[in-house]
Design goal:
five-stranded parallel sheet, 2 domains, 407 residues, eight-stranded mixed sheet, alpha/beta, Rossmann fold
Length: 407
């Protein structure tokens, strides 16, 4: 079949490569000229590696949609500054698809969306173009699952769920995904449950992380080591799933998806108090981390204002080049607001220092925001204060001032 993937980011690009590897003719569309240029040069726009599977790409080519049997929408679904869901990328991609769609094609939205978006937002766009779902085209939702940097789970083998607007939509989507994936595909009873599945997966993690982050704050008053407690609790072989405290929650899913459910439920008259509290706790962790630094500086009779602080690690996750919703950005912002001179270093992202050695020459006071493997090479003799936002060096003891999250 001919497959068009709209949105060539962390989800769409590997999916396009997978489809090409299965023998489909693949087209890719992305608004980013930088990504398109990278692909045309034979470079993976996400990982910077040589491309494994070549396919045609463009920033705007209606013919790609018109020539495709399957169109997969993988555009971002962010939140705005007020934490309100921004569905405009999904709306724009759906409109683009509806305007150029070939009859009898399958349209799948993989972007993370709240329950009801497929029925209340996406389908009406196709209705406007006099396209009847289940007759003129087939509409389904298969929420993306991706774990950047994971050597075991990738786009081809992670189990998936799929929902359709009609039984025929569901069957067509199921047949397509089982043809390209080695992981299992579960049919959901309706499209709304498929939408809710992804939101629940990530909200589950957000709530549990909030729980241990609040424990970390509490146990700092009670002189209890949070990480040791979690490791102890993990010896129970059932009914406990370990999550660990940190300087904040980042990435494209966990700090975003709960807001989609919170706002959707609000329109139906329900107030998700628990979810909002979890978000409040996790959003407070960058400020909590900066306060740990301020307290440590005070112990040295130093002020944060005017002091050079090194922020080690910018990406939200170890060993990947991904800044999305990274808590390091808020930590940097808070440090600068309080008058600190900030120097950053990340081996995967453009930063102030060009090397770990150069960074350490300027920064004896450090907040570690990302646990990149390279940071195991830190020269501890050059450090005076280390605030370990990821508890990366939890098991070590130092002569300098060391503060972890929850210990």
């Amino acid at each position: 079949m001919n497959v068009c993937v709209i949105g060539l980011g962390y989800v769409g690009y590997p999916l396009a490569e997978l489809c090409a590897s299965k023998g489909h003719k693949v087209y890719g569309i992305d608004l980013s000229k930088k990504k398109i240029d990278s692909i045309l040069k034979g470079i993976d726009p996400i990982e910077g590696k040589p491309i494994q599977q070549k396919f045609e790409v463009s920033t705007d080519n209606p013919g790609f949609v018109a020539d495709s049997d399957v169109i997969i929408i993988c555009v971002p679904t962010p939140v705005d500054k007020l934490k309100n869901p921004d569905l405009q990328p999904v709306i724009s991609a759906s409109e683009y698809t509806a305007m150029n769609l070939k009859k009898k094609s399958l349209v799948v939205v993989e972007s993370t969306i709240n329950p009801g978006v497929m029925e209340d937002v996406v389908k009406p766009i196709f209705d406007k173009h006099n396209l009847v779902v289940g007759v003129d085209y087939f509409l389904a939702h298969c929420p993306e699952r991706i774990n950047p940097g994971d050597p075991k789970w990738n786009v081809s083998n992670i189990p998936r769920v799929v929902g359709g607007l009609t039984s025929k939509c569901l069957d067509k989507a199921y047949d397509f995904y089982t043809s390209i994936l080695s992981g299992s595909v579960m049919k959901m009873s309706n499209i709304r449950t498929a939408e809710a599945t992804k939101i629940v997966e990530n909200t589950f993690r957000d709530i549990n992380i909030a729980f241990v982050n609040e424990l970390a704050k509490s146990f700092s008053f009670l002189d209890i080591d949070t990480v040791e407690v979690i490791k102890g609790a993990s010896t129970k072989p059932f009914a406990f799933l370990a999550h660990y405290p940190s300087c904040g929650v980042g990435g494209h899913c966990i700090p975003v998806d709960p807001y989609y459910l919170i706002e959707r439920a609000k329109t139906k008259g329900f107030d998700h108090k628990f979810l909002k509290l979890a978000r409040e706790i996790n959003n407070s962790m960058p400020a909590y981390t900066v306060q740990l630094l301020i307290d440590a500086l005070n112990d040295h009779k130093l002020s944060l204002n005017g002091t050079t602080i090194g922020v080690l690690g910018l990406s939200y996750k170890a060993d990947v080049a991904d800044l999305r919703e990274s808590p390091s950005l808020e930590i940097i912002n808070l440090l600068k607001k309080k008058g600190a001179n900030v120097i950053t270093y990340d081996p995967y992202i453009e930063s102030d220092a060009s090397s770990l050695h150069g960074f350490q020459l300027k920064c004896p006071f450090i907040i570690l925001c990302t646990n990149h493997k390279q940071f195991n090479d830190l020269d501890f003799d050059k450090i005076k204060i280390l605030i370990d936002g990821k508890n990366m060096f939890y098991d070590q003891r130092f002569k300098f001032t060391y503060r972890g999250i929850g210990r």
